């Protein structure tokens, strides 16, 4: 089995103006998807990320503090899963709860280095 990271990209919920009921419903979908992966034994870890960001860029190490309102899309979270290949992870990603909000799942294989 290989490890893959599913990276979730989209708008911050606060910027979308979702009602408390919509937020609660959406979180229920996230918990259901997470539980499904855990029960299948494929989920290794994952977390949501706060919308505040700090970027350090270039040779001069220029530091910029940003919020989700200042960038079009943010990385909102990730899961690390075990699967045979990209196709298997793509099937897992079909249940991503935020496609209807224009969200994106980026799948990357984790590079493992032997010591």
Give the helix/strand layout.
Blueprint (H helix, E strand, L loop, with lengths): L1 E9 L2 H4 L3 H21 L2 E6 L4 E5 L4 E5 L7 E10 L2 H8 L10 E6 L6
Antiparallel strand pairs: 1-5, 1-6, 2-5, 3-4
**Portion in strands:** 35-45%
Q: What is the ordering of alpha helices and beta strands?
A: EHHEEEEHE
Structural class: alpha+beta
Rg computed from alpha carbons, rounded to a whole number of angstroms:
16 Å
Mean pLDDT: 91
Entry summary:
Helix content is 29%, strand content 36%.
Structure description:
- By secondary structure, the chain is α+β, with helices and mostly antiparallel strands.
- The chain has one domain (2-109): Dimeric alpha+beta barrel (Alpha-Beta Plaits, 2-Layer Sandwich).
- Helix content is 29%, strand content 36%.
- It contains three helices and six strands.
- Strands 2-5-1-6 form a four-stranded antiparallel sheet, with helices on one face. A two-stranded antiparallel ribbon has the order 3-4.
- Strand 3 (53-57) and strand 4 (62-66) form a beta hairpin.
- The longest helix has 21 residues, at 20-40.
């Amino acid at each position: 089995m290989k490890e893959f990271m599913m990276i979730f990209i989209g708008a911050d919920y606060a910027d979308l103006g979702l009602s408390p009921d919509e937020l609660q419903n959406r979180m229920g979908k996230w918990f259901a998807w997470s539980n499904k992966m855990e029960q299948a034994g494929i989920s290794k870890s994952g977390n949501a990320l706060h919308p505040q960001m700090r970027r350090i860029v270039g040779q001069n190490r220029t530091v910029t503090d940003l919020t989700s309102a200042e960038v079009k899309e943010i990385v909102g979270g990730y899961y690390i899963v075990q699967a045979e290949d990209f196709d298997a992870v793509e099937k897992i990603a079909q249940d991503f709860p935020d496609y209807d909000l224009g969200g994106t799942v980026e799948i990357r294989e984790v590079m493992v280095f032997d010591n």
